[in-house]
Amino acid sequence: MTETKAYPKIYLGGDLVFRKNAQALFHTFKEICLTVRLHGVSPFDGQDEVEALPAGKDTSLLIARLDRGLMDECDGALFCIDPFRRAADMDPGTAVEIGYMAAQNKPMAGYTVDGRSYHDKVQAYFERGWKESLSAVHQASGKTRWLDADSMIVHSEGLLQNAMVEGFIRQSGGDIAVAEDIVEAFRVAAQTLSALMHKGAGETE
Question: For residue range 186-203, what is the model confidence (pLDDT) as tens digits?
Fold first, then answer.
């Protein structure tokens, strides 16, 4: 059995917990983590007591508390930033977790199977859901602002997700891996985070 105690503990965040193949994904991701000297920790690892509880407010809040406890125990994180529930934006709970880990100055890396820009994701979302296109507003400065059908500015130009999400990951030293296959995207992100963390621990490349 591979010894994991000496490896940095990595929180495996994202909308993965809502997917029907979540357990299989986490098993695969943990195996990948071991190959790059990381110890992957799934949110499910701290939720054994939840299974027997009825659905409801108290159980939901317990899950949030358990997830926070796991993040406190981890040295870094790998986050899936895929669009959530057919929307342009990622899972909001995962965005909160990214901010929480950033506040603790812990290294992170992200991954996604959707390499479209945030602008393109918002545009596709409104066209698909409401048959509405984005509208361009040309400013006196020469810049063009894009508005959605609700007259909200489409922000975070040049990025895959909200600038706070992607910015916090990059400020921690990490990057965003993009691949059509989620396992491959995760593998690249795990390699990136491992190099960052082991280098930070004083190891040479």
Answer: 999 999 999 999 985 655
In this structure, what token pair is assigned to residue 46? 């701290």
CA-to-CA distance for 49 and 34, rounded, in angstroms? 26
Report d(CA 105, CA 76) in Å as an integer.
Answer: 9
84: CB partners within 8 A, 6+ apart: 15, 90, 91, 92
Q: Which domain holds residue 58?
A: 9-115+160-200
| Count of C-beta atoms within a 10 Å radius of residue 109 | 28
CATH number of the domain encompassing residue 195: 3.40.50.450
The predicted model scores a pTM of 0.93
Angle value at C-alpha 181, between 176 and 185, nearest 5 degrees: 25
User: Within a domain: residue 3?
Assistant: no
Query: Does residue 38 sit in the same domain as residue 81?
Result: yes
Q: Cα–Cα distance between 6 and 113 in angstroms, integer? A: 31
Residues 172 and 105 sit within 8 Å (Cβ to Cβ): yes
Question: Which tens digits make up the pLDDT trace of 130-152?
Answer: 999 999 999 888 889 999 999 99
Asked whether residue 63 falls in the same domain as residue 139, the answer is no
